[in-house]
Amino acid sequence: MSSLHVVIPAGGAGTRLWPLSRQSWPKYLLEVERERSLLRAAIERVEPLAADVCVVTSPATARLVAEQVDGAAVPTEVMAEPSPKNSMPAIGLAAAIIEYRHGRDALVGSFAADHAIADEQRFRRVVSEAMRAADHGWIVTIGITPTHPATGYGYIETGASIDGLAARGVTSFTEKPDATRAGHYLARGGYLWNAGMFIARCGVLLDALAEEHPEMARGLRALARLDRPSRQANEIWDALPAIAIDHAVAEPQASAGRVAVCEAGDIGWSDVGDYAALAECTRDADGIARVGDITVTGIDAPGSLAAASAASQGEHVIVCGIPDAIVVRAGDTTLVTTRAWAGRIREVRERASHDRSSE
Amino acid sequence: MSSLHVVIPAGGAGTRLWPLSRQSWPKYLLEVERERSLLRAAIERVEPLAADVCVVTSPATARLVAEQVDGAAVPTEVMAEPSPKNSMPAIGLAAAIIEYRHGRDALVGSFAADHAIADEQRFRRVVSEAMRAADHGWIVTIGITPTHPATGYGYIETGASIDGLAARGVTSFTEKPDATRAGHYLARGGYLWNAGMFIARCGVLLDALAEEHPEMARGLRALARLDRPSRQANEIWDALPAIAIDHAVAEPQASAGRVAVCEAGDIGWSDVGDYAALAECTRDADGIARVGDITVTGIDAPGSLAAASAASQGEHVIVCGIPDAIVVRAGDTTLVTTRAWAGRIREVRERASHDRSSE
User: What residue stretches are annotated with the Nucleotidyl transferase domain (chains A, B) (predicted)?
Assistant: First the structure.
């Protein structure tokens, strides 16, 4: 089987984890495991399957990303986008470069920089299945078996099994549903969570893009042949539309019956999408979740999370008498709330920014 | 009427307000009002009645105290005790010096460095009454009218009114009672809280001390005549017993019928004894209590307190969804709890110190 050319788009600040992650310290840098950032974990868990890894990020964060990539077991590259364009241009350019270097049958696999996966072996097993399906010409996604009627994820509607592959066809991708619809999906069965993982031959992916957005595919394939950065390259990049790979390729190709899905099963996936999710995937034996190099004393505080940004490492947080507390230390900012508020952090941040600026 | 020579013993760390106050940053330095420490407030509220003010503190905190005393409206002195000896030696030495300088009829008044009083005018009115009673030869204390059956204060049992003075005799001083006994005191009436304020002629106070502890009175009077610091002075000081003025003079003299009490009425007194008390006496219009120069965003957090030590000034604390929260920022330590735990901070501190040292 071919090996995988891995692309990891690392954009986005993760505002639902403010003030722990910010524009200048994106979510993928958080050390959810002790001394391993989400990005580093994303790289290490695919390494055994990877020929090489390319992380696409912004010029502002390229240096921080390079530190994370340093010392990886496979060749790595950090590519700085001249401007943010959502996931399709980032993944598409990486695919075009891989196609240019390794030919149109080389496999490209795109994975999020800031998700957590507890069972890495099972994860690699399903990625291997996805690679086999991709080798057969499918655009393949990996679907997470839902554990509850989540409203925070898009869903993949699955169709019939594909002969000879551990995969099924994808009927459609759906946007994040409301609670009623999510409940309906779970009751009906056949729906998986969309974790934003895509595996395909470079040629298949770019040809599919060419069907939907011909100028974009042409631009990316031209960019792959050019020196970057250069004025000409930047001009082509700037002209590209900002669009997610889901909308640009996955959804229309699913309608055309060209997308397959491999079901991940119980791999302990989390998008680490808010503080509740962060607490879930970092809980220690004593029931307290710790993020960053901090001492945490928890007294009568089951289910609590204490997290420290890079500016607050080595600190001591004491939480006492508040179950499900969330305490975030981030330099001169301290957020204290509970898990019940995990979904409303953007709102809290806006209010806080207003108070601060009016002081 | 004579004017008052004020003594303010400023010892004690205030461990029930850890980590906001510590040995190196005692409770009396907390800025409970905006930009005014408890000690500064203690000085300023007696200034209109005072001839001079002497603050007795430790050598380690003498410089911090001097900064607080600087710019007072009356002559001030900071006296550093060679070693801590509780309140009697501190107040007694100040009284002996006042007696040596101004004669035995000069009035000495001792007030806590770390209490809060909301109504300063009413406070001065009752101090004036106490001064008049002291001019008549009484050892006078000021009693706080109880508002609830508190178990955190000693009580003053009052006797008959004293003719011609707005004062009553003191039958006895009691230790901090349990809840049953405190309820009993309130139901029965005639009990006031002991706020540790004493006013007397220097000669009366020292003669009373001489009756109970003759060597101590002799030592203090000798010290008043000596150069300090000096080897001889330090030797005398070191030989003194460590004892509170309540036990050394007030209790035995009350039994002898020589102590009077002036009732303070509603002066808004607080001993700022724990975080619940601190929250009560610093509440802003929005229901949030702020201590120190910090921005606080409170969302659905009525009754909460956010406090910053000297090391954490200028910070921003956001409290969200936790009523009665207590959030204390103190350098590399953050305490998050609720008012229900205000009485158990020593316990929390011990547990926290253990966690930190075992890291």
Answer: 7-284
